[in-house]
Amino acid sequence: MKNLLVQKMKQAGFVLMMGMAFISCEKNPITLVLHNPIYPTGSQAVTYNAERVTDGSISDAKLYETVNTINNSGSITSTGTETLLQTWNSPSGDLSFTKPSGHGDNKLVTYRWVFTTPDQTKTFKVTYATRPYPVANIPAPVYVQGDPDDVFDLVFIPDTDVTSMNTFYTNCRGAIREAFFEEPHTQFWRRQYNFYINKEKGHATDYDHTETDGYHVAPSNNAYLSFAEGKVIMHQLDLRDYRMGSLFSTEMQNRGTIMHESGHAFYSLADEYSGGVHWQEEVLPNNWTTLAGAQAASTGYGSCKQSSDAVQIDDSGYHRLCVSNCQMGHYVSQTRPTGYDCPGQSRITYVVFDNASN
Ligand SMILES: [Zn+2]
Question: Which of 208, 321, 349, 356 stands 20 to 30 A from 22 (CA)?
Fold first, then answer.
C-alpha cells in the first residue's frame, strides 16, 4: 500500500487536486467542537462547545454522551449508555451545553455531536478522561477522535518550570483550539489529531545553549509514549525551541511556535529561514537543493505558485517556494499561527494519507 501511495503522491498535482476535492466536501458551517476544561477533575463541571467558524445554517443539532468507568489498567469495567443531552432546532450562533456536576473519578467520557445541515449530516465524536487518570505511565486522553495508528497523536508534557498546572491545562486546550483548530490546513484536517496530557514532567532547553544546558529531557515514562508522533514539552520560560525526533518544545502560550515545531515532528517539514535546518524530502518537499528543482516543483500547486516564487534561503544552499511569512519560515517564537503555504499544505495532506493508510 505504501509504495503505491507514494507513487501516486509523487504526482504533486494529484495531491493538491485531492486536497481541494476534500475541501469542497465539508459544507458550511464549519463547526469546531471542544470541551472545557479540557482535562476536568471528576467533580468539575464540563461545558461542551460547538463553535461555528463559517456562516451556514444548521437544521438541527444533537449532543450525546456516554460515560464509561475504567480501572487502573485502563480497561472499561462499566459501560455507560449513550444519552441524548440536548437537541437544538434551527439554532443560530454557537452552541453550548454544561454538565454541572462533573462525571466522577475513573471515567472515560465520549461525546458525540450530530449536525444536520441542508447539505449533509456531520458527526464529531470525542473521548476524554477525567483527572486524575488512573493508568500508570500512560498519558490521559483529553481529545481523542481516531485510532492512534491512523491519526497524529500529540502528548502535552508539562515542563519542570511550570508553576501552575491549571495554567498548563488551559494552554493545552489553547494549543488545540488556537493552533491546530485555527491554522486553516490543520483545521481542515482536525479529525486527524488525538491529544493527550502526560502526568510526568519533562524539561526543555534552549537550542542556542545546548552545549552548557544539554538537550531536552524526556519524561520518565517516555518508553510508553512511542505510539505518539509528537511529544511537546510545554514550558513557561522563553527559549529558542527545537525538536529532536518526535520530542519538541514550545512556550506553553505560543500557538505559532507549536505549529512550527510540530511541522517538523509530524510532517518532516524543513525550516525556510536562514540558519535553520534544511533537507529535501523525497516526496513533496518544502526545501529544494537546487533552484531548478524548486522552479520545476512550482507547477504542482495550481495557481498558488509560479516559477518566480523559487528563491534561495539566503546562503543555505537550499531553496523554497513558500512565502517568507509561512509557518516554517519563522526563527523567533510566534504567538499566533501564520499558516502553512501551499507546499507545506500539500506535504501535510500527503502525510495525513500516509499515516492513515499504513
Ligand atoms: Zn524550525
Answer: 321
What whole-number distance in Å separates Cα of residue 192 and Cα of residue 293? 31
Ligand 1 centre to CA of 118 (Å) is 43
CB atoms < 10 A from the CB of 356, how many? 15
CA neighbor of 275 nearest in space, from 336, 332, 215: 332
CB 230 within 8 A of CB 246: yes
Query: What crossing angle do the helices spanning 342-357 and 255-267 adopt, rounded to 10°?
Result: 50
Q: Which SS3 state, helix, strand or coil, does residue 228 take?
A: coil
The pLDDT of residue 24: 53
Structural domains in the chain plus CATH codes: 28-135 (2.60.40.1930)
121 strand-pairing partners: 116
Q: How many whole angstroms from 331 Cα to the centroid of ligand 1?
A: 7
Q: How many CA atoms lie within 13 A of 242 on its CB side?
A: 15
Task: HSE, CB side, 13 Å, CA atoms: give it for residue 213.
Answer: 13
What is the pLDDT, as a whole number, of residue 1? Answer: 37
Q: For residue 11, report the distance from its CA to the centre of ligand 1, in Å.
A: 26
Task: Report whether pLDDT(40) > 50.
Answer: yes
**Rg of the chain (C-alpha set):** 21
| Lookup result for grid cell 503522491 | 9
Ligand 1 centre distance from Cα of residue 264 (Å): 7
